[in-house]
Specification:
heterotrimer; A alpha+beta; B mainly alpha; C alpha/beta; B: mainly alpha; 3 helical TM bundles of succinate and fumarate reductases; 83% helix; C: alpha/beta; 7-stranded mixed beta sheet; binds flavin-adenine dinucleotide; binds protoporphyrin IX containing FE; binds iron/sulfur cluster; binds FE3-S4 cluster
Chain lengths: 247, 206, 603
């Protein structure tokens, strides 16, 4: 027999002066293969067209639908109701500005983060359209891709109590991004340069190893290992800087 | 330019942490000699005394303890806004490693107070002998004192090395769950060992 | 009245929009990109399999060159493309891909030595030579003579969009995300910018720009079942059509991808078949070789989708509560290959179907996937009808895809067109000033505000979601893979009725702030108009070409229909006005046999 699920959804529309933050309950019969993408859209189409939430690819690849599902940050589009209990509580991701209900402004956060860590390949070489591409070992390419799979969903920020406590902490996503550039031979920055952007308490030394990030990342990015990698590299860099004659 | 300060402090935090972990486990093993009898305990104590390990090592550990405290305190949320944020995040997100950190902070506060008293008492009453220790444990509230300090220290130390391993990559993600299990076993082992030691001291007739 | 001024306004921040924006920003122009979602969530990030560029590095791509790529593209388009554009495109694709590499895309590389691969379920061997080690490699895709689809596992779009957006950050391209262009500001001759609704606050803004680019992606969501993101609702095409003077090209050319999964319609890449996966029927037997002995599963998408449809119509599909489907089999590729080269597919199968593709068959059926049609532009990307308006990417009908886009050609199009159109826009900006007519801006803002006010104040009328669903169902039922006069007539009639009813929409919500229902209500009439362009264009095109397959006109008719449909929507009509232009002015390869797909040709 199919279950009737209770959805407790956070409701608040900051633009509406009459709106007050709170949980609203909805009920919906469970159907086969139901996931939260379908469920929320049915709720919106049939019960309350004003509910705000974000979906885009609905295939677990764009990162739009991060929310807190029964206490755990995750991608709603990939969450099957069959894996949930009879009561489902949905909250917006903490750590980001609320747009309304379950929808948060991840765009501005990630743009600012990318600007801060100067998230692009730094090189002096001009692009020459006549020239062949620079060779790269395929294993390196695959390793970069592995780290590049991050979809900037924000779950790792929502799941990091450090990031919640200290608003300027850049989070695991940024450290992973830096690790990606460290292993990319096209990026000519040295550890000295990376140190400038993440060798700080807002960067890698702010991380307390809570591993919420690792445990929720929907793309299974090896965040724990990347954080440790960046910490070691930045740690050594600091020691190197202490040596006489080093800038 | 970014300063090296946060990095250096993090290094120190790791190094003081490692020192303290090693010290605490050795400290427990040293005390365990009481299980073999006051003789074994006393000869070990003599040995430390002879090579000035207690006189010099004691204050050194006390110093490390202090430094570690100052370093780690940077991470403890001091403002109530931060505390609330951390608490609400941890409450919403029932996540073991996040809770372990809370355990570390709470145990740290106990260890700071009781540990300092303990060191003061022991180090101002050198040399260490089985008889003095037994007498202490058999009088007043010292038993309660140690019963509280013991689990707190062991939890703090166990979680401490686990976290160090995670943060610096001695423990890779593939080994994390094994390491965490090892941490639980080790912590349990040392708490039990500590209890046996306390019982042994209690039963030691002076 | 809140007005934002900029040199270039890009409506869309996917690969195409950002590539153009970067070109302008590098030349020192102020550039703003609008996007419904943060730029990195644009649907480009969902592209999986690969990007075509004739590098010829891997051994199976040996001998590849732009000429071969050109032939494949023109044949793939069923001679519906503009050959001058296709030529520019293939010549520039290698440059574009190398530039993407320079910017940090982790393309998979050639690994020297022996390795095995699969073709149609058969295990074969190849040996990569030492001297090509480390160069960008490629995989096989449908409708191509060589292995040419360069890839990053099967997350190619994502792996391209992130570095490109990084470059946009570097050059200070502004992205105003969560904004939606509602209409273009123009005076019938010149485009001056757009009226935009902020999707965070619901406020209206005017953006005034010396040049405006539409790069808003496809409009697949006019169909109920589509591999497209839910935001692919045709916003850019709608505002172009609404001007009354800018025509949309070949809107009837809608691509169905052979392997959308059942039931969620998520795509699994053509790379599955390119890497040797096969299609099986209810008896778990391969059937494609029976239809296409030569190319089998790797014929072009229109052909494979049609064969699948036919095969299911013969009762050989697998029955399921969600309708018939077929199987995609990639089990023989092995777990390692799947977990490295088809990672996203692996994840999608596990998360959305609960199956392990290394052990189990994947349920698939043809699903709406790509819009060949769009804002008609000249070879420089300038839209017909309005000066200062440009278009690029899937939103445009540039037109290198004709009636069927080859897999992997779309990602290349975004960056190649982005590069070429970007340069043209820079030239345009260098020599072009606009004179501002504040009255015009005020009027357009007022017009949109009135639309919103009307929607918010109406207290009885049609439900927004009901009408949207109705439109989607009409297209699913009557404007699918196979088309005929009767169905298309029905579609046109019913869509006209739906369009009429959208004049009377009523919100169930208050419409305040970023209200999602209001957003849809504002978009819906335009979506129905796009649907009508598709259905009416399809009805009028009395031949079969590429993805446009008419049961009542099964042959390709080069005598009468070697033309591109141009659909304009003059105000107050309930049907588009269709005109036609020659498909191509320059003919390098005269129409001929595609080598797959069968079907007659009237020449
Ligand atoms: C599942 C899938 C897989 C694919 N795989 C491949 C592949 O392997 N190889 C290949 O070559 N092609 C592939 N394609 C096709 C290819 O991905 C797209 O055609 C291409 O990425 C489109 O890029 P774009 O920049 O034109 O548009 P998009 O990336 O879709 O970007 C559109 C932008 O416009 C914005 N926008 C839309 N409307 C408005 C509005 N009204 N106001 C403001 N902003 C607006 C959006 O927010 C977005 O930023 C695939 C497509 C799909 C659906
Ligand atoms: C003075 C009282 C103490 C306080 C206030 C204290 C506090 C802390 C805090 C807050 C942390 C977490 C730091 C972080 O996550 O970044 C920590 C970590 C740690 N503590 Fe303590 N602690 C104390 C005593 C001790 C003692 C006595 C030991 C060992 C015997 C110890 C061993 C460790 C270790 C190994 C770590 C992990 C190091 C790291 O994470 O960098 N601490 N301590
Ligand atoms: C500075 C050097 C130290 C010395 C010389 C020392 C010595 C001793 C001695 C002699 C005892 C036996 C009981 C007694 O005599 O009261 C003891 C017990 C104990 N000490 Fe220490 N100690 C030191 C540091 C610490 C520190 C830093 C801590 C933790 C914060 C600690 C925690 C304990 C505990 C929990 C016990 C109870 C023993 C058990 O049950 O295992 N000690 N210590
Ligand atoms: S690292 Fe993982 S959790 Fe964090 S943003 Fe990227 S994909 Fe999301
Ligand atoms: S949860 Fe936060 S503290 Fe570090 S390990 Fe992950 S970033
Ligand atoms: S909607 Fe894209 S990840 Fe969920």
């Amino acid at each position: 027999m199919s279950r009737k699920l209770k959805y407790s959804i956070f409701r608040y529309n900051p633009v509406d002066p009459d709106s007050k933050p709170g949980m609203q309950e909805f009920f919906l019969q469970e159907t086969e293969n139901l996931n939260l993408f379908v469920a929320l859209n049915i709720l919106r189409e049939v019960q309350d067209p004003s509910i705000q939430f974000d979906f885009c690819c609905r295939a677990g690849i764009c990162g739009a639908c991060g929310m807190v599902i029964n206490g755990r940050p995750g991608l709603a589009c990939r969450t099957k109701t069959a894996d949930l209990p009879d009561q489902v509580s949905l909250l917006p991701l903490p750590g980001f500005r609320l747009v309304g209900d379950l929808s948060v402004d991840t765009g501005s956060w990630f743009r600012a983060m990318n600007e801060k860590i100067r998230s692009w390949v730094h090189t002096d070489k001009e692009f020459d359209p006549q020239e062949q591409e620079v060779c790269m070992d395929n294993r390196v390419a695959e390793k970069i891709y592995e780290l590049d799979r991050c979809i900037e969903c924000g779950c790792c920020i929502a799941a990091c109590a450090t990031a919640q406590m200290r608003v300027d902490f850049l989070g695991a996503v940024a450290m992973n991004r830096i690790a990606r550039f460290m292993i990319d031979p096209r990026d000519k920055r040295g550890h000295k340069d990376y140190f400038e952007v993440v060798g700080t308490d807002q960067g890698i030394f702010g991380c307390m190893g809570l591993l919420g990030c690792q445990d929720v990342c929907p793309k299974n990015i090896p965040l724990q290992d990347q954080l440790a990698y960046v910490r070691r590299k930045m740690g050594w860099q600091a020691l190197r800087r202490l040596m006489p004659g080093q800038a | 330019m970014t300063t090296s300060r946060p990095a250096c402090l993090d290094w120190l935090q790791m190094l003081t942490g490692i020192c303290l972990v090693v010290f605490m486990y050795l400290h427990a093993l040293f005390l365990a000699s009481i299980i073999l009898g006051p003789g074994a305990f006393n000869s070990l104590a003599d040995f430390f005394e002879k090579y000035y390990l207690a006189q010099k090592g004691g204050p050194a550990i006390a110093l490390v303890f202090l430094v570690h405290f100052f370093l780690a305190a940077r991470k403890i949320p001091l403002s109530s806004r931060e505390q609330k944020k951390f608490l609400s995040a941890a409450k919403m997100f029932r996540h073991r490693d996040t809770w372990l950190w809370m355990v570390q902070v709470v145990s740290a506060v106990v260890v700071l107070l009781l540990g300092a008293i303990h060191m003061w008492v022991v180090l101002t009453d050198l040399p260490i002998t089985a008889e003095k220790s037994a007498a202490r444990i058999q009088t007043g509230y010292w038993l309660v004192f140690y019963m509280l300090l013991l689990p707190m220290v062991e939890l703090h130390v166990g979680i401490g090395w686990y976290r160090l391993g995670i943060k610096w990559g001695f423990i890779k993600s593939a080994a994390r769950h094994r390491a965490k299990r090892a941490e639980y076993y080790l912590t349990t082992f040392f708490i039990l060992l500590g209890l046996i030691i306390l019982v042994r001291f209690l039963l030691l007739s002076s | 009245m809140r007005v934002i001024y900029t040199d270039l306004l890009c409506i869309g921040a996917g690969l195409a929009g950002e590539r153009v924006a970067i070109e302008a920003a590098q030349a020192g122009f102020e550039t703003v990109c609008l996007s419904l979602v943060p730029s990195r969530r644009s649907h480009s990030s969902a592209a999986q399999g690969g990007m075509q560029a004739a590098l010829g590095n891997c051994i199976k791509g040996h001998g590849d060159c732009p000429d071969v790529h050109f032939q494949d593209t023109v044949k793939g388009s069923d001679w519906g493309c503009d050959q001058e554009v296709a030529r520019m495109f293939v010549d520039n694709a290698p440059v574009a891909i190398r530039q993407m590499d320079y910017w940090g895309v982790p393309w998979n590389r050639v690994v020297a030595g022996r390795s095995c691969y699969y073709k149609g379920g058969e295990r074969l061997e190849k040996e990569e030579p030492l001297e090509k080690t480390g160069l960008i490699t490629a995989r096989d895709f449908g409708g191509t003579a060589r292995w040419r689809a360069c890839f990053c596992s099967d997350g190619t779009g994502h792996a391209m969009l992130y570095p490109l957006d990084n470059v946009a950050v570097k050059y200070g391209v502004q992205v105003h995300d969560r904004t939606e262009a509602l209409s273009l500001i123009h005076n019938g001759e010149q485009c001056l910018g757009a009226v935009v609704r902020c999707l965070k606050t619901g406020r209206l803004l005017a953006y005034l720009a010396r040049a405006t680019l539409i790069a808003s992606g496809g409009f697949g969501r006019i169909y109920r079942a589509s591999t497209n993101a839910v935001i692919n609702e045709g916003g850019g095409q709608i505002i172009a059509l609404d001007t009354g003077v800018v025509p949309l090209g070949n809107m009837e050319a809608v691509q169905f991808h052979p392997t959308g999964i059942v039931p969620t319609d998520i795509l699994v890449t053509e790379g599955c078949r390119g890497d040797g996966g096969t299609l099986l029927d209810v008896k778990q037997e391969r059937f494609m070789p029976g239809y296409e002995p030569e190319k089998a599963e790797l014929a072009s998408r229109d052909v494979v989708s049609r064969c699948m449809h036919e095969h299911m119509a013969r009762g050989l599909g697998v029955k399921s509560p969600y309708g018939d489907h077929l199987w995609l089999d990639i089990r023989h590729l092995g777990r390692e290959h799947i977990s490295v080269k088809l990672r996203e597919v692996d994840e999608i199968c596990k998360n959305f179907l609960g199956i392990d593709p290394a052990e189990q068959l994947i349920p698939v059926r043809p699903t709406q996937h790509y819009s060949m049609g769009g804002v008609r532009t000249d070879k420089n990307g300038a839209a017909y009808g309005l000066k200062g308006l440009f278009s690029a990417g899937e939103a445009a009908c540039w037109d290198m895809h004709g009636f069927n886009r080859l897999g992997g050609n779309s990602l290349s199009e975004t960056v190649v067109a982005g590069m070429i159109v970007g340069r043209k826009i820079v030239e345009f900006l260098q020599g072009h000033e606009i004179s501002l007519n504040t009255g015009l801006v005020r009027n357009e803002l007022k017009k949109q505000q009135e639309r919103i006010n009307r929607l918010m104040s109406r207290d009885s009328g049609e439900r927004v979601y009901d009408l949207r669903n109705r439109m989607q169902d009409i297209l699913m039922d009557y404007v699918g893979i196979f088309r005929n006069e009767k169905d298309l007539n029905t579609a046109v009639d019913e869509l006209r009725e739906v369009l009429h009813r959208t004049g009377n929409l009523k919100l169930s919500s208050s419409g305040t702030g970023a209200d999602p229902e209001l957003a849809l209500a504002l978009r819906l009439p335009g979506m129905v108009r796009l649907a009508l362009c598709v259905a009416y264009g399809a009805l009028e095109r009395r031949e079969s070409r590429g993805s446009h397959a008419r049961q009542d006109y099964p042959a390709r008719n080069d005598r009468d229909w070697l033309v591109r449909t141009l659909a304009c929507w003059p105000e107050s009509r309930d049907l588009p006005r269709l005109e036609y232009e020659p498909a191509t002015r320059i003919v390098e390869i005269p129409p001929g046999d595609r080598g797959y797909g069968g079907g007659g040709v009237i020449s």
